[in-house]
Structure formats: structure tokens, C-alpha cells
Write a structure and sequence with these properties.
By secondary structure, the protein is mainly beta. Helix content is 14%, strand content 47%. The chain has five helices and 30 strands.
Length: 503
């Protein structure tokens, strides 16, 4: 059986070759439905008596006519207008990520339980056909107590009085802190915790559920079996209430830019009066991994620039599987698609065009290269060891000039203490062929022990490794180059039209 999403993607790709219009037409969907119903009633009224072969052939014609009607309407109006309407049924919930709105139910207003200083608040509950997503805020816990997702349950009673529940699929707990006016408050206690939870789908006929929090170990004097229980009523998501429940979005067409074999695509845009979220993907050729766009900015035709961006650790991105695209031709590299998401301040609702700009992209490369450092016994702090080590990463030359023995902080067995370490000096050219050397990370040949990085310049990070005397064999220390970061200069610039009205 064909996958409907694949068919949808192929249709969008096909139509995208012919059309560049991006404006949605809110009247289109309203007009399309009666047109199709009128056509269907005409076919039904003129259909003759039953005959298996004849009827099957005529239904084939009817289906073809309906498809032609849809295709003709799309041609007349422009496919991007259709797509803006269809993609409206994708929503975004902060912390949870993208949500399929069709067939979803959601909590209309937050539900909470408060006792003393402790508050347990369910901010979001969205039951989509594929997942049940919950956002919870907990505040007022005692010092040195942090919540776990384990003792939070979703349950309901069926008509026979049996208790049912959902299995958890994914969870993350994030501590939040009050604003910090200076470095003196870096060790302050959290002011609360955000919990983002994903469970298996909730049955479609269940609209009354309970959320249970087993409070033992978190609420003072709580008994081992004591729980706080919230009764939740769910409402079907519709056009009228979608924006109150989750942030609606759209998928613009022809929103991509390719530079140096790296393609950035804007997949979806979510915006309301509080923020703008850009959901994008970065396609890079192997062996590059973990692309991290740098100096990302968003602007509109009204001239308003959004505030600095930050990368949200949403639940749907946390632990996401990276997609691999096999090479199109023999000898071509395998391409991998990495998700990216940025949040910006809200844009002016009078704006009609939006532009995403990326100045450069950091690419990580795993390097299989080892070399030896010659030393006698236990070298003293300040000892310089000349080196002449050269290698290249995807054609970028790297040269290591020397090693030096220093004292550096290291995190070992839960404590930070100063240890003797090896620090390296690199005298390679900082840039070549549009690439810039961003970082080099080393490790002992057999066991990786990292210490704080050495920032030689504002643009280059060079890792250190702990000097362990057991590493010295026959007067030599074997060192491995672990990772090299190269910054690929752009820019990537992507512009699209903003739908003026999304119903």
C-alpha cells in the first residue's frame, strides 16, 4: 500500500516545479468542498443501473474526473495556496515540538494542584493520533530535591470500571532558574522544573482522564503510596480553538538554499503574538556530522529584525533519528538530514515576506589519526615538547607545532580538581577554501579523558588531555585526534511569502 505522506510529498515536489506562488487563499478550501460535492452528486444522479464491469469502469472515470477537478483547481489557484491550508493542521507546542492537529484532542486550560509552596501544573495535554504529549511545571520543591518523570501516570476507567493507563515513550526534565544579574548567582537553586513527556496514543473514545503524581520523596511527609490526582477533560481540536491550544503553522514552498554541497531547507513556520519558530533541516554530505548553523537571523520586509535566537531542546528533537539519503550516483557521498529549530521574537503581522539568513555552519568530523609524543619520566609543568604533526580533514590542512605540560581543571569522580595535562599548539592557516578551523579535540589512544578546553584565540578551541604516567610507554605517549570542527562559510539566504490569513 502506498504511504499517503510519500504521495503527498511527491505531489508537492511535482507541483513545486511549475509554480512559485506562496500566498494562501483562505476562500479556496471553502469553495473546493461544495465544488467536489456538486460533482459527486451529479455523478451519482446520472449513474445507470448496476452492472459490475460497467460500474467499475464508470467509477474509474468518476475518480479520474474528481482528481482532474482537484488538479485543475490547484493549477488555477496555485499549489502553494493549497499547501498553506493543508499544513495549517500542524501545530507547535513549546517544549513538546510539532503536533499533528487532525484528529487531536487537547486540554483547553491548564490544570493544577497546589499544597503549601509546591505546585503541580499541567500546562499542555495533547492527544494526537500518534502520541500523547504532556507539558508539566513543578515549583516549590525542597532544596536538593528534583522531580523524575517516572512517578507520573496517565489513566482512565473504561465503561466496565477497569483502570487503564498509557506507557511512556520519551521524557525529559529541565531545571529552570530565575534571572541571574551577575556571575555571583551561577550556583543558585532552580526555581522550578519543566517536564515534557510522550506516551503511546490515547484511545480515540477517551476524553476524560486522570494524571497521577506519586509525591513520595518530593513532597515533605508524603506517604509512599500518596498521590496528587488531576481530572482532565479533553476537547477536540478545531479551526476555532487550535490557536488557543497550540501554535498553528504552515509549510512554505521553494524555501531552500544550497552552498558548498550543504542544503538548508525551511520545512515549517510557526508564529503567534509571543514568538516565531522556524523548523528547518540541514542536509550535509558524509563524513560531516552535527551541523550547527552560526549567526542565524530572521528579518521581514517591514525591516524588523527578531531578537537573538536560541535552540530549543524540544521533546521531538531530543533523540531524533538522523535520516540518511543514499548517493544519487556511484562515488557520490551519502547525505544526512539533521533537524534544526530556532525560536525568534514575534514578527510584525503586517509583514508579507520573511528571510532566514545563516552566515556559516560548523561541521564535526571524526578523525582517525594518531601520533606519538616523546617524553622522559614525569615532565614538569611548563615543559615544551616540539612536534611536527600534519594531517588533513576533507582537504583542510592541520599542523600541530608543539605540546606543553600545564595544570588544568578536570572533572573526575564528581569533583573538579587541577591536574597535570597536555596542551597543544596549532599553527595551521586559520582558513582555506571557504572553511575555518574551529576546534580540535584530542584523546589518549586507549582511554578518553577530557579536561577543560584551552581557548588559544577567540576563534579556535584546542582540547587538552590529562597526563597520566601510565600513558607513557617506552618514553612515548600515544595520542589520537578525536574530532575536528570546520566552519563552512556561507551565507545561506532563504526568503518566502508569509500567508496573510490562515483560517
Amino acid at each position: 500500500m502506498n504511504n499517503s505522506k510519500d504521495m503527498s510529498d511527491r505531489l508537492e515536489t511535482l507541483l513545486g516545479h511549475y509554480f512559485q506562488s506562496h500566498e494562501p487563499d483562505p476562500a479556496f478550501i471553502a469553495q473546493l468542498r461544495p465544488d467536489l460535492l456538486t460533482t459527486a452528486s451529479e455523478i451519482e444522479r446520472t449513474r445507470p443501473g448496476f452492472s459490475w464491469n460497467w460500474s467499475r469502469r464508470n467509477w474509474r472515470y468518476a475518480m479520474a474526473a474528481a482528481l482532474l477537478l482537484i488538479f485543475g483547481t490547484i493549477i488555477a489557484i496555485g499549489p502553494s495556496r493549497v499547501w498553506a491550508q493543508i499544513e495549517h493542521w500542524l501545530g507547535y507546542a513549546p517544549g513538546l515540538g510539532m503536533v499533528e492537529l487532525s484528529g487531536s484532542r487537547a486540554l483547553e486550560q491548564p490544570a493544577f494542584h497546589i499544597e503549601g509552596d509546591i505546585s503541580f501544573r499541567v500546562e499542555q495535554f495533547v492527544a494526537s493520533p500518534s502520541d500523547t504529549l504532556i507539558s508539566i511545571r513543578i515549583t516549590g520543591l525542597p532544596l536538593n530535591v528534583s522531580p523524575s518523570s517516572g512517578p507520573i501516570y496517565v489513566q482512565w476507567d473504561d465503561p466496565n470500571g477497569r483502570r487503564n493507563g498509557l506507557r511512556m515513550r520519551k521524557a525529559q526534565v529541565i531545571a529552570t532558574f530565575p534571572p541571574c544579574p551577575s556571575e555571583e548567582c551561577l550556583n543558585m537553586q532552580p526555581d522550578g522544573y519543566d517536564l515534557f513527556l510522550a506516551y503511546e496514543p490515547l484511545p480515540p473514545d477517551v476524553n476524560q482522564i486522570q494524571i497521577l503524581w506519586q509525591i513520595y520523596g518530593m513532597v515533605p511527609d508524603a506517604a509512599p503510596t500518596e498521590t496528587w490526582t488531576l481530572d482532565i477533560s479533553l476537547t477536540q481540536v478545531s479551526n476555532q480553538n487550535a490557536q488557543n491550544l497550540v501554535q498553528p503553522g504552515y509549510s512554505p514552498l521553494s524555501t531552500e538554499d544550497s552552498q558548498h554541497g550543504i542544503k538548508v531547507t525551511v520545512d515549517r513556520v510557526f508564529f503567534d503574538a509571543s514568538q516565531t519558530v522556524i523548523d528547518a533541516s540541514v542536509l550535509v554530505p558524509e563524513p560531516a556530522t552535527l551541523p550547527l548553523p552560526q549567526s542565524v537571523s530572521l528579518s521581514t520586509d517591514t525591516g524588523d529584525l527578531s531578537a537573538p535566537t536560541y535552540f530549543p531542546n524540544d521533546l521531538d528533537i531530543n533523540g531524533v533519528l538522523i535520516q540518511e539519503n543514499p548517493p544519487a550516483t556511484d562515488g557520490a557521498p551519502t547525505l544526512t538530514v539533521w533537524p534544526s529549530r530556532w525560536r525568534f521574537s514575534p514578527v510584525d503581522f503586517q509583514a508579507s515576506r520573511m528571510t532566514l539568513s545563516i552566515e556559516s555552519i560548523n561541521l564535526n568530523y571524526d578523525v582517525q589519526f594518531q601520533f606519538d609524543i616523546e617524553t622522559d619520566g614525569d615532565p614538569e609543568v611548563g615543559t615544551l615538547i616540539p612536534l611536527d604533526v600534519s594531517f588533513d580533514v576533507e582537504g583542510f590542512p592541520v599542523h600541530i607545532l608543539q605540546a606543553r605540560i600545564v595544570m588544568a581543571p578536570a572533572f573526575i569522580q564528581g569533583m573538579t580538581k587541577d591536574v597535570k595535562a597536555i596542551e597543544f599548539t596549532v599553527d595551521s592557516a586559520s582558513s582555506a577554501d571557504g572553511k575555518r578551523l574551529g576546534a580540535i579535540w584530542f584523546s589518549p589512544y586507549e582511554d578518553q579523558v577530557f579536561v577543560e578546553p584551552s581557548i588559544e584565540t577567540l576563534e579556535l578551541s584546542i582540547g587538552r588531555i590529562i597526563l597520566d604516567l601510565d600513558m607513557i610507554r617506552d618514553g612515548k605517549i600515544r595520542v589520537a585526534v578525536d574530532t575536528v570542527v570546520l566552519e563552512q562559510q556561507g551565507p545561506w539566504v532563504i526568503t518566502w511569502d508569509i500567508p496573510q490569513e490562515v483560517d
